[in-house]
Structures are given as C-alpha cells and as structure tokens.
C-alpha cells in the first residue's frame, strides 16, 4: 500500500467559509460534550478509589491474616512494625497499610512489606501463596539473613514487579524466578557490600535466569555475585550490575541491537561499550576501574550523563567529538571538569546560552578568544586555574552577567579598548547593563582601573583585589547606587577615597586595605546606611576618629589599622553607636587619651544576645533567586599572628587597639563584652592594674596586654578562662604570685617576661612561702597591693608599712617628750620664759 502524505503550505492555505446554519446547534452540542467529559472524569475517579479501597474478598482477608500470624520479626525491632498493626478483621483488608486491591473483583494485587524487620515465616507461609493474583511484591529492607530466597515465587504468574533488595537473603538465586515471564522490574540488589556477596548467580547463571524475561525493563543486581557475561534482553532499558568482582569479558554482540539506556556497573568496563548507541546514562563512580577509558565511548552520541569519578583511570581521555560543532546550549556540567589532568577541551562551534564554568581546575595557557565571542553567554567562571595572558573583553559580552577570572596568572592591563574606540556609540553603558559580578582578583594585573567600568550601572560586586593596579579609585564608583561590594585591597592605588557617596548608597562592603590612599574619610559615607564592612587598613588616611560612623546601624567590621589617625576617641551621643560592632581594629595609629569606656557599653554585638545561637557567615547574595554568594574576608591579629578570615562568622568578636598612645586605666566596664574572642591592648601607655572583670570573657582565646605600664597582680579570675590559648602580659610592672589554673600552666616565661615582681609556676622563678596571689577588687594601687608579701598587714583594705609607721611614731614620741620636759620642769620653764 502506498503511504499517504500530508503537506500544508502556510501560503496556499485558505480558511473555509463559515456555514451559519450550524451555529444554532452549538449550545446543545456544547452541553452534551460537557456531560460526556464530566461522566468520564467521574468514572476515572471511582475506578481510582476502588483500586485502592476496593471491597476485600473474605478469602483474601483470611490469607493476609494467616500470613501475618506466620511471620516472625527481629528481636530488636519486633515492636516497631507499622504496616501490620493495621491488619485486623474489623476493617476492609483493602484499606490495610501495604495492601492494594483491584477495583473489580476485590483481589489483592499489591503487597508491600518493606522495612518491617521481618526475619522469617515467608518461605512456609500458606497465606502468602494463596494470594495468586499478586502483581507487585515488595519485601525490601527486612532481616531474612541468613535465609535463601523462598522457593515457589514462580506461583505468582501475574507478578510484574518483584523487589527483594536489601532483605538479607543469601545463597543462590532460585531458577523459579526465570519462569515469571511477566516481570517488568526485578531488584535483587544489596547495599551491604562484603568480600563474599550474599546472593550469587552461578547455577543457574544470569543467562539461564532471565532467558525468558522478555518483558523485563529494569534489572538491578547490584551486589550480586555474577560470573557470566550479559546477553540479549531486547527491551531492557536500565541495568545495574555494580559490585560484581567476578564479572569479566565484554558484552555480547546480541546486546548491541538492544535498547539499553542506563548502565551502572563496576569492576569491569567492556571495551565495546561504544556499541550500545542508545546509552544516555553511564554511572561508573567509585568502581575501582583502572587502565584506559575505552576509545569506543566517543561513539555514544546519545550520552547525556557520564560519571567516571573516583576511579583509577589512566591514559588519555577519548575524543568526545560529539561535543563539538553542534548546537549545544544551556550550561556545561561541572562534573565534566573534575578530571585532574584534563589539558584540552573542545566545545567550539556550539551555542551555549547560559554559563561556562571551568573553575577550580588546573587549566593553563591563554584564555581562548573564542570564549569572548559567545554573544549569549551570561556566566563565565574560569577562576582558580593557571590561565595566563591578558584579558580582552569586547562588545559581544553584552549579556554577560557574571565574570569571574580570579585566582589565575593573568597579566597586563584590563583591556577595554574595544569599548573606547570612536565606532562605539556613546551609550556604551547599555552594553553592560546585565553585568552584576566582576572578579579579577588574585592575578598580576597592572595599570589603572578604566573609567569605563562605571558604565556597568547594574554592577553589584567589583573585586579587583590582590593585583598591581595603580592610579586612583574612579570617583564615579561612589555614585553607583547598585554597587554592594567594592573590594580593591592589596594594590598600589593612591589618591583619596572616592566621594561623594550619594543618598540611597547600597554599599555593604568597602575594602581598600593595603593601598596608598590618603586624606580623610568623607562624611558622605554615612549615606551608605547598609554598610556592614569598612576596611581601610594599611593606607595613609589621616584625621580624628570618625565617631559619626556610629550612625551606621548595620556596621559590624571597622578596620582602620596602620594609618595616620590621631587624637582622642570621642563618644558620640547616639542610641545606635556601633551597636552591631563585632570586629574593630584601630591598631598602629596615633590615638591618645583614655580608652573609650562609654563606647564599650554601646557595643551590644560583643555582649550576650540571642543571635549567639544562630551564627551566620557575612556574605552577600548577588543573585536573589540562586545560591550565588560573595564571601567577605578580613585580616585580624589573633593569637599573636595576622590571619585572614575567609569566612566572617557573626559570633566572632575582636578588639585591637594596640600600638597607639592610650593612657590611663583599663575600664572595668570592658568586662561587659562577654562574647569577646580577641583583645589586644598592647604597646600603649596604660597604667593601673588589670581589671578582674576580664574574667567575664568566657570565650576569650587571645589576650595581649604587653608593653604597657600595668601594675599590681594578675587577677585570679583570668585562670578560669578555659579557652585562652595565647596570653601576653610581658613588659609591665606586675607583681605577686601567678594565679594557679590548668590553662595558666600551659604558658611559658615569655608570656610574663620583664615583670620582675612575678613569681611561681609556670615561671622559672619560685615564690617565698609568704608570697600570696594578689586578689584585685579595685583599681586603686594601694588596695591592689594590700596583701603583697612586702607588706605585713592591712587596715580597711589598705596595706600598712610597719617600718615607716614605727619611724613616724618614734619621731612623734621624741618631740612630745621634749615638749613635756620644757613645760613641766621649773628650771627649764624659767629659762624658756626668760
């Protein structure tokens, strides 16, 4: 018979004329059609309900109860069965958990007894084998070990799905399963891997077992010991034969004409795997494969998912020629680039419309110019590789939203000259309206930051840190209200901080640390009301302490270290003064005066609060509907070393006021900052004694009070700081016995160096028997030294020097006697009068 064909041309097609005589019948026709649809839906609903809750036949109910009586359970979990607890004669058996009936005859067609901790009673259960209409049987995840698979399962001639996975069955798989010709799914797998697999296919072997299973679509023999090669299963779509150490050889030629789509296997990889052209999924992860990858894999033109991870493959990767010169679109999957020795990847002449992510590999050489010619590319991430050469962006990146080339070896200037030629229109910013994220950090870039970067009006994150950039920071960056993160740290930039910052400024991170920026901090920065991190350390910025920053309610991190700030730290009267502070570093400046006790009381972020139990990491989500975050970092001095916190936890707190000219006493109120982790007040001119309130720092890990003029003793409360890892009290004027405590015994002499009045463990200098610890209650020196060994007694908390007192009393007594003699003796009296 000749096959008819239909051809419709849009140009030749003419609409038929509308016949008005049929219009009068439309309402009746529509009503009749609606009733038919409603009746059809009603029948489907009834049938569906009957399938689940159909009326159970009495003999079926009796067989199920008989099965329940015959079962035995694991002693450890005998009371935890859930499905069988609903099996009782007072309810319709079709409503019992794990039971499915058909909607016509009331026969039980489905039985699910998985995860019931059954240990026996199935093999000799008369009740089970009376359920001859069963189509689905699930005994997975029980405790039948060490029992074989029950004989007689072939009586269930209607069975289409049999699941015996992870049930503990052992021994040979019975040949009766091969007579279940209607099986569509067979699962004999086990996750309990051992050197001696629980189930085995030897006699009968796999060929004999499934010879007649022509309807089989899914076969899972994961963990079954198979010693024969696989043969033709004409309708097989999925095959899992992993963890079969004795499986050898290649797949027979008959299977080449099959329909296999998913293959999961281990221990052996057929050389002719490429002959199975329908394969779309291959999972060979953690399979112990070694040797080369078969070149025939390059012929798998339908392959969508390939996982070869965690193996010992050697040799070259086959040429996956089917990836080039196609019309592939979407994203390049990340697992493709987990091959540690991949040197060449050809994805040319495709139409990727979304992203290209090759980050965190060992790719090297120059970045191919063809990448920058992909007009629809939205995400390009080549970070953490060994790429070199220069960057040459072009107008083709009009849709590029994320550009991440960080952590490479890219040199030279940021080349945007294609955007600056006379042929480019004046509205160049429109070509960059989609750019949200640009990171070129940790490279070898030089030259100035091009002013054209400001044309990216949608830019939210700009990270050019850790390069060799020169020139000034483009002033226009302070006018970008969309910018959230500006990170230019560790370059050679000079000039002033860009200003003015406009109202509505959205900056949350401003990091210019490690440059040569000068001038003052512009007060217009207070317009950036969302600012959380301000890091201006290691520059040449001058001026007094910017107390007006206390108006920024969300400010958590303030780093001004190693600049030219001077003067007193004044307290600004405001209820929101640095309430969220968790890290402040003012070290290595020229601040003077006393420590700001009033400010300490404002720093609620360093006190106990409810967020302590919900710690988070400071980061910025620049794509609201994704998991794309920008991670903030900060450098702090902790435990005597400078370290970079690549993740800033909201519960980490630190105060560093070292290397200044602060004087006076350490205020007692500093002890209210109970959540403090790091305190560094070293290299100042502080006097008085160490406040006992420092013992409130239960989380304190590092305490440095060295190079001051502190006197008195060490408060015994410091010995209770169990997390204290670094203590430096050297170069002060401390006296008395070092407090005893497990933590204090771990410190060496260097922690107490140049305090000649200190003695006792852990110091090498021992104390006299009459030397006691110096308990500190007040910061008044004479009270602090009240019980020190040189002074033998105390009166009202003050020490008494009896040597000085005896001289004073003796002198007074002598004068008194002389006056008494002169007045009372007559001869002396007359002489005195004369």
From TrEMBL:
Q: Name one GO cellular component term.
A: plasma membrane
Protein's UniProt keywords contain Mitochondrion: no
Query: Transmembrane ranges?
Result: 29-46, 802-823
Q: Where in the cell is it found?
A: Cell membrane
| Membrane topology of this protein | Single-pass type I membrane protein
Which Pfam families does the record match to this protein? LRR_1 (PF00560), LRR_6 (PF13516), LRR_8 (PF13855), LRRNT_2 (PF08263)
Which keywords does UniProt give here? Answer: Cell membrane, Glycoprotein, Leucine-rich repeat, Membrane, Repeat, Signal, Transmembrane, Transmembrane helix
- Give the matching Gene3D superfamilies: Ribonuclease Inhibitor (3.80.10.10)
Keyword Flavoprotein carried by entry: no
- Where do the Leucine-rich repeat-containing N-terminal plant-type domain residues begin and end? 58-102
Q: Which family does it belong to?
A: Belongs to the RLP family.
Can you name this protein? Leucine-rich repeat-containing N-terminal plant-type domain-containing protein
Which species is the source of this protein?
Answer: Aquilegia coerulea
């Amino acid at each position: 018979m000749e096959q008819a064909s239909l051809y419709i041309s849009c140009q030749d097609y003419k609409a038929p004329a509308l016949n008005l005589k049929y219009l009068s019948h439309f309402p009746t026709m529509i009503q009749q059609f609606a009733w038919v649809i409603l009746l059809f839906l009603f029948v489907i609903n009834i049938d569906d309900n009957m399938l689940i809750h159909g009326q159970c036949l009495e003999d079926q109910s009796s067989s199920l109860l008989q099965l329940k009586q015959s079962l035995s359970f694991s002693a450890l979990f005998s009371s935890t069965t859930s499905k069988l607890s609903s099996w009782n004669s007072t309810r319709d058996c079709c409503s019992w958990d794990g039971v499915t009936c058909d909607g016509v005859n009331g026969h039980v067609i489905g039985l699910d007894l998985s995860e019931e901790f059954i240990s026996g009673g199935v093999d000799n259960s008369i009740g089970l084998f009376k359920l001859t209409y069963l189509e689905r049987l699930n005994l997975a995840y029980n405790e039948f070990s060490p029992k074989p698979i029950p004989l007689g399962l072939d009586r269930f001639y209607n069975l289409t799905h049999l699941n015996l996975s992870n049930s503990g069955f052992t021994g040979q798989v019975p040949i009766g399963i091969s007579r279940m010709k209607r099986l569509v799914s067979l699962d004999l797998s086990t996750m309990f891997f051992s050197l001696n697999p629980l189930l085995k296919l030897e006699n009968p072997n796999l060929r004999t077992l499934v010879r007649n299973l022509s309807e089989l679509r899914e076969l899972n023999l994961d963990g079954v010991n198979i010693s024969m090669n696989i043969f033709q299963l004409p309708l097989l779509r999925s095959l899992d034969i992993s963890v079969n150490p004795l499986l050898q050889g290649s797949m027979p030629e008959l299977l080449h004409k099959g329909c296999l789509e998913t293959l999961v296997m281990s221990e052996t990889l057929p050389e002719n795997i490429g002959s199975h052209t329908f394969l779309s999924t291959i999972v060979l992860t953690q399979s112990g494969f070694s040797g080369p990858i078969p070149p025939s894999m390059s012929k798998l033109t339908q392959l969508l998912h390939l996982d070869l991870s965690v193996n010992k493959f050697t040799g070259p990767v086959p040429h996956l020629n089917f990836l080039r010169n196609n019309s592939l679109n979407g994203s390049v999957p990340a697992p493709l680039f987990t091959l540690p020795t991949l040197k060449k990847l050809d994805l040319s002449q495709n139409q990727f419309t979304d992203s290209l992510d090759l980050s965190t590999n060992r790719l090297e050489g120059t970045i191919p110019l063809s990448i920058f010619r992909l007009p629809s590319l939205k995400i390009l991430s080549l970070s953490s590789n060994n790429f070199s050469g220069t960057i040459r962006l072009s107008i083709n990146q009009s849709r590029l939203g994320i550009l991440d080339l960080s952590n490479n070896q890219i040199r030279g200037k940021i080349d945007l000259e294609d955007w600056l030629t006379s042929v480019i229109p004046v509205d160049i910013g429109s070509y960059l309206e989609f750019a949200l994220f640009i990171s070129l950090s940790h490279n070898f870039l030089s030259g100035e930051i091009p002013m054209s970067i400001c044309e990216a009006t949608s830019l939210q994150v700009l990270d050019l840190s850790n390069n060799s950039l020169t020139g000034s920071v483009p002033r226009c960056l302070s006018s970008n209200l969309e910018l959230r993160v500006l990170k230019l740290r560790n370059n050679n930039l000079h000039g002033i901080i860009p200003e003015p910052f406009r109202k509505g400024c959205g900056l949350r991170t401003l990091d210019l640390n490690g440059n040569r920026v000068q001038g003052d901090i512009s007060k217009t920065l207070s317009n950036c009301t969302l600012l959380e991190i301000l890091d201006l350390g290691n520059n040449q910025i001058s001026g007094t302490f910017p107390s007006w920053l206390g108006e920024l309610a969300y400010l958590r991190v303030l780093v001004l270290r190693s600049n030219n700030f001077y003067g007193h730290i004044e307290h600004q009267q405001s209820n929101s003064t640095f309430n969220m502070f968790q890290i402040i570093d003012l070290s290595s400046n020229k601040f003077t005066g006393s420590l700001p006790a009033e400010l300490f009381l404002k720093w609620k972020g360093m006190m106990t609060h409810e967020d302590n139990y919900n710690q988070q990491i400071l980061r910025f989500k620049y794509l609201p509907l994704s998991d794309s975050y920008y991670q903030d970092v900060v450098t702090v001095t902790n435990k005597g070393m400078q370290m970079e916190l690549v993740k800033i936890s909201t519960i980490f707190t630190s105060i560093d006021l070292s290397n200044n000219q602060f004087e006076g006493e350490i205020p007692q109120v500093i002890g209210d900052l109970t959540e403090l982790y790091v305190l560094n007040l070293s290299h100042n001119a502080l006097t008085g004694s160490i406040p006992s309130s420092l013992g409130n720092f239960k989380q304190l890990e590092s305490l440095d009070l060295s190079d001051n003029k502190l006197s008195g003793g060490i408060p015994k409360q410091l010995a209770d700081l169990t997390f204290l890892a670094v203590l430096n009290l050297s170069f002060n004027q401390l006296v008395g016995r070092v407090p005893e405590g497990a933590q204090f015994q771990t410190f060496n002499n260097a922690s107490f160096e140049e305090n000649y009045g200190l003695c006792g463990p852990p110091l090498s200098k021992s104390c006299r028997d009459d030397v006691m610890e110096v308990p500190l209650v007040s910061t008044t020196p004479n009270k602090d030294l009240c019980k020190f060994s040189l002074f033998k007694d105390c009166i009202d908390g003050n020490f008494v020097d009896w040597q000085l007192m005896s001289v004073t009393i003796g002198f007074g007594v002598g004068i008194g006697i002389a006056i008494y003699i002169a007045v009372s003796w007559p001869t002396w009296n007359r002489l005195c009068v004369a």
